Amino acid sequence: MTNRVFAVDRLGRFVVNQMGYTFRVLAMVYLSLRATILDQAQGFRTIIVVLSAQIYFTGFQALPLISVLALGTGGILFLQGMGNLTLLGGTEIIGNFMVLVLVREAAPLLTALVVIARSGTAVASEIGNMRANREIEALESMGINPLSFIVFPRVVGGIVSVLCLAFYFNFVALIGGFFMTQMIHKMPFGFFADSLLRAFAQEDVVIFFLKNSFGGMIIFVICCYQGLSVKKSPHEVPQVTTDAVVKSIIYVTVFNMLVTAFFYMGRLKELGVI
User: Could you give the CA distance from residue 194 to residue 213 in angstroms, rounded to a whole number?
Assistant: First the structure.
């Protein structure tokens, strides 16, 4: 009985700590936006330069890795879908299968994982080293708000990059995966394209923007927050970088699950199942 009470108490404290952490992260989003609008000590042009550099690093330089991952994912899903749908006599719904599995679920999550591994770790370690080397204190002494100069352009650049990478991932996975698997399973491209067009709906666009825009924001806000949490020692940088990766993966995965559950619960209500 004592062990059960102790476990419940630990779970309660964990939930409270995570709620407090979420609130602090959301507060930093508001403060960075407010600082960017009100504090212009560094100039708007400087923010654009930092934002462009973040988009170049996070988005453009990740294209080779995204291309390989998208081709492999699209080819595997297409072969698996056609292999099973052919046995069931439902090849005409291959578009629905690809949209449901790839566009709605696999692409946002895999894109987020790539961004976390490449850019999230870089942002957390960079800001952590800036904190440890007192570069942030130097910015503050010059009247520059770190939230507007460091956090805001990285968050906005991250959101734009994740949206573009997710769109590119879907395009390469759907089109490239189709052509890559034609040696194994022949299908007319017109048939595949028509099946895809019939499968896409307005809610797919909503899910795409929700998962990828908020996913990008979650990743870079958490990584910036973890980097700023470094106190004095450079030895803290690897620890906060690891925490940034773990927390980003957890929060992005949970958010994607909640969005999926919300939309499918709405679909079940429309059908009268619940």
Answer: 28
